[in-house]
Amino acid sequence: MNRAMLVGRLTSKPELRYTGSNLPYTRFNIAINRTFSNAQGQREADFISVIVWRKQAENVCQYLDKGSLVSVEGRIQTGSYTDKDGNKRYTWDVVADSINFLESKAQAQSRQSSGYGYSNDVSPYDYQNDSMSMNDMSIDQDPFADFGDSVSIDDNFLE
User: How many structural domains are present in the chain?
Assistant: First the structure.
């Protein structure tokens, strides 16, 4: 089984591109904080490359921006190429089947205007590591407020 499910923030604004046969796609990276801190007490992040095709790519480019919180579900695809110096390079991407926008455009604009914006001098590590906890969020800021059911995750699941 080849399935990947990720939640993270876009590291840059996605750009819509087209294949030679006019098929729309976009490629972007999401930053995902690791659950532990390094020796200096700082949280590190992984940067995952995501590819999205067709209408979903158009929607991503229209509605998302740098710092947008998304969930991605898809499959991992590997590849390789030879660089200009003749070295073989290996790649891997998540090819998205589903992208869920986890904050509204109004929430994103509010985040940017309230000091949680992402200027060029802010590291993508900070995207998920701001000082706001779930307890500090109002119902308007909680992307799961309308979910209706409680969610229970067994601690053994994370190991």
Answer: 1
pLDDT tens-digit series, residues 59-70: 999 999 999 999
| Three-state SS letters, 134-157 | HHHCCCCCCCCCCCCCCCCCCHHH
Q: Is the entire prediction scored with pTM above 0.70?
A: no
* CA pair distance 33, 47, nearest whole angstrom: 9
Domain hosting 56: range is 4-137
> Residue 159: inside a domain, yes or no?
no
What Rg value do the Cα atoms of the chain yield, rounded?
Answer: 17
Taking alpha carbons only, the member of 40, 48, 55 closest to residue 73 is 48
Cβ atoms of 18 and 24 closer than 8 Å: yes
Residue 51 lies in a domain: yes
Tokens of 98: 């589903």
Q: How far apart are CA 149 and CA 28, in angstroms?
A: 32
